[in-house]
Amino acid sequence: MALKFGAHVSTAETDYGTVLLDERAGDYWELNPTGSLVVDTLMRGGDEAAAVAALTEEFDIDLAQAKQDVEALVKHLRASGLAE
């Protein structure tokens, strides 16, 4: 399933990954390069399987760990109210 941030979330690319700002609460999160790749894949319309594939292609990570990491990140982004 593709990911969409709420209208209250701003993103910025940095040398170290992606920063997410929740403008409602003033909270921010910094995603490392793996988290950035997952979010970028999902924001471009890819599903979780595509994000897992992107992780295993780009980084030295096995399939099971990549799947667990993608699921955890997506769950956290949705639970925090950043993503739909």
Outline the biggest β-sheet: 3 strands, antiparallel
Order of helices and strands: EEEHHH
Strand content: 15-25%
Count of DSSP helices? 3
Number of strands: 3
Mean pLDDT across every amino acid position: 92
Radius of gyration: 12 Å
Give the CA-CA distance, first to last residue: 10 Å
List keywords for this structure.
84 residues; Lasso peptide biosynthesis PqqD family chaperone; three-stranded antiparallel β-sheet; alpha+beta
Structure explained in plain terms:
The protein is of the alpha+beta class and 84 residues long. The chain has one domain (9-79). The protein is 46% helix and 20% strand. Strand 1 (9-14) and strand 2 (17-22) form a beta hairpin. Helix 2 crosses helix 3 (63-79). The longest helix has 17 residues, at 63-79. The termini are close together. The mean pLDDT is 92.
Q: Briefly, what is this?
A:
By secondary structure, the chain is an alpha+beta fold. The chain has helices spanning 33-43, 48-58, 63-79; strands at residues 9-14, 17-22, 27-31. The protein is 46% helix and 20% strand.
Secondary structure layout plus pairing:
Layout: E1 9-14, E2 17-22, E3 27-31, H1 33-43, H2 48-58, H3 63-79
